[in-house]
Every structure is written in C-alpha cells, then in structure tokens.
Specification:
By secondary structure, the protein is mainly alpha-helical. It is built from 15 helices and two strands. It has one domain. It has a two-stranded antiparallel sheet. The mean pLDDT is 91.
Length: 367
C-alpha cells in the first residue's frame, strides 16, 4: 500500500516546495549574515521538524486525520484565547514565547479549521448537496470559521483572518453554495467596508490603508517600509545587485527583511528573473493543488484541498502584492520562504495533506 501511495503521489507539488525552500534559505542566509545567522539556523531547525511531520501525514489516510479535527480545533480555540493574555509584540498578541522560539497559534489553527469545516460540510451534505444552502446549516459552517477569525481579529492580525475567510469562501463555492448568497455577501461587503474603515478599524489599520493609497503621506513613518521595499526591488533590476550585496538589506533600511519583506530582499539581491521564477513556481503549486481538489476521491478531500488553496493563494498574493505596493501591508509571511517556525510547520502540514489527497485520488488510485 505504501508503495502504491508513493507511486501515485503528485511529486510536482513537493518539487515546487523544495525550490521555494532553497530560495528562502539562500535569502535568509544573506538577510541574517550580519546577525550571526540566528534566524537562518532556527529556520533550518524548523525545517528538520517539519519534513518528518509532512511525511507522517502522507501515509495516514486523511479521512482518519479529519476524525480528530474537532479535538484539535478545540485545542486551537483554547490557544487563541490564551494568547490574548500574553504581552504585545509590535502591537499584537499573537505569539507564545518559548525560550528563544515563538509559537503563533493562529498559523497552526488554519489546518484544524480547514479540516473541521470540510467535515461539517460533508456531514451536512450526506443526504443532498443542496442542504448546504439551508440557512441554519450555512450559519453552522460559517460559525466554525468565524469564531477563530474573531479571536484572531482581537489580537489583532487582520491578514491571517482574511486567509481563513478566503479559505471558507472557496470551500463553500466548491460545495455548491447558491449564487444568491454570493451576490448578497458581495452587496453586504460593499456596504460594510466603508463603515468598518470609518467606525471600526483602529488608527494603525486606517493608517496602513491610507499609506497604501499614498505612501508619501508619511514617508518616515507608516509609509517608510513600503517605500524602502519598492526601492529595494527597483534597485535589483533584472539580475539583482548580487547575493550578500543588497544595500537596502544590509544597511538596515529594509525591515522586517526576514519575514514580511523577504521578497523585496530577493528582488534587490537576485533580481527580477528570480522573483519571476518564484511567482511561476507558486502558480504551478496552486494550480496543482486545484487539480488535486478536482480529482480527489471524495468531497472531503476536495474541500480540504481547496481550503488549502485559499490559504496559499492569499498568502502569496498578499505578501508579494504588499511588497510592490499593490496591496496594503498586513504582515503575512511568504509560504516556504519567509522566516517563521509556526508558519513553516503549518505550510508543510498543508503540503502533507495535499500529497495525501493526491495519492488517494480517483484519477490515480481508484480507476
């Protein structure tokens, strides 16, 4: 059985991940060389932890993993509540500090929320796929995601919260939600967005939006990071300034260069060609994930896979978009490239689930 799983797994997914991880390590080495390679070494440790976890997930049928998702979901809710009582870091209560390492429960909770949401949708659709459109059923599904999202917003971490919402939207779309709900949601969103801006968002969130629209409003304050990011990417031109030779990176103008703005650092030192390669690899990765959702052996696999697509898609588009000034800065990491222990473990768990679903797909194993 294990040989059959290995034979039928979509290894193209893993190849994309390996390419991204290698680029990330090269970038992190340069970004941390002035700091005794501290974060680079930690990233290597987290990779060493993540890879065995991914392999273990591959060989356990995802339907069995999903059975324990309610308990894991409950644990994640407890952690999301507990983290609100920790000390704020950069204005957010999102991390538990364990020695020299930090743990971010909102990252890992993505996995459990996707699995539980998928399980709830499948259970609702046991008799008919149309049962998802019953108001009470829809409220139940949305509630599974909305509860952790509200806790994450309180931290506050708006970027991660949006990733959850996009994942939910894609799961509902694939599950066959009625178009009337989609249209109604778009109308409500159009009404709520300006109201949220004027009456709900805190000043620092409004500032990020204002600076996104016009960075020159506060070039030495809220607009500083995006201005420096665009300078770094522009300075790299086609082939980059050379590895270890980025001026914005090594003179301290680009911050945080190992997490939010690592794409800018890559653009400065390795140039447009490598940045373009990264985008192409992400497109291939997400396209393959969508194909896995289409060919999964059952609805459960399809919903998990498309939920993962939502997480990856948001992180990639938002992180790259914010570094080049197309989207507001939200502080989400670039998958497999940015430094971050919890994020890299979460990314590999998601990839493990994708490989798991692909290995048991109708297209390969059951035809």
């Amino acid at each position: 059985m294990n040989k059959k799983i290995l034979k039928n797994t979509d290894w193209g997914i893993l190849i994309c991940v390996i390419i991204l991880v290698i680029i990330g390590l090269i970038a992190l080495y340069s970004a941390t060389i002035d700091n005794d390679l501290n974060e680079f070494k930690k990233q290597c440790i987290w990779l060493a932890i993540s890879i065995p976890i991914m392999i273990a997930i591959l060989f356990v049928d995802y339907s069995l993993i999903v059975r324990i998702s309610p308990y894991l979901y409950g644990l994640s809710i407890i952690l999301l509540i507990a983290v609100l009582f920790t000390g704020a870091v950069n204005g957010a209560r999102s991390w538990f500090n364990i020695g020299s390492f930090a743990f971010q429960p909102a990252e890992l909770a993505k996995v459990f929320v996707i699995m539980l949401t998928s399980m709830v949708v499948v259970n609702i659709q046991k008799n008919s796929r149309k049962d998802i459109n019953k108001p009470l059923n829809l409220i139940m599904i949305i509630g599974v995601v909305l509860f952790p999202v509200l806790l994450i917003v309180i931290q506050p971490d708006y970027g991660t919260a949006v990733a959850y919402i996009l994942s939910l939207v894609l799961i509902l779309f694939v599950a066959g939600i009625d178009k009337k709900y989609i249209i109604s949601s778009l109308i409500i969103l159009a009404i709520l967005l300006p109201l949220m801006y004027f009456f709900i968002l805190p000043d620092h969130a409004k500032s990020r939006i204002d600076v996104y629209l016009n960075p020159d409003l506060d070039p030495r304050g809220a607009g500083y990071n995006i201005i420096q990011s665009k300078i770094a990417i522009g300075a790299g031109k086609l082939f980059g300034m050379g590895w270890l030779k980025g001026t914005q990176t090594h003179l301290g103008f680009l911050y945080p260069k190992t997490t939010d703005f690592i794409f800018s650092m890559i653009g400065e030192e390795l140039g447009f060609i490598v940045c373009g390669l990264i985008v192409v690899v992400y497109v291939i990765l997400i396209t393959k994930a969508i194909n896995i959702a289409k060919t999964a052996r059952d609805d459960l696999g399809s919903y998990i896979a498309i939920g993962i697509v939502g997480i990856l898609l948001f992180h990639v588009v938002e992180n790259i978009g914010m570094t080049i000034g197309l989207l507001p800065i939200t502080g989400v990491p670039l998958p497999f490239i940015s430094y971050g222990g919890t994020s890299i473990v979460t990314d590999f768990i998601l990839i493990g689930l994708l490989l798991n679903i692909s290995a048991r797909s109708k297209k390969n194993m059951f035809t």
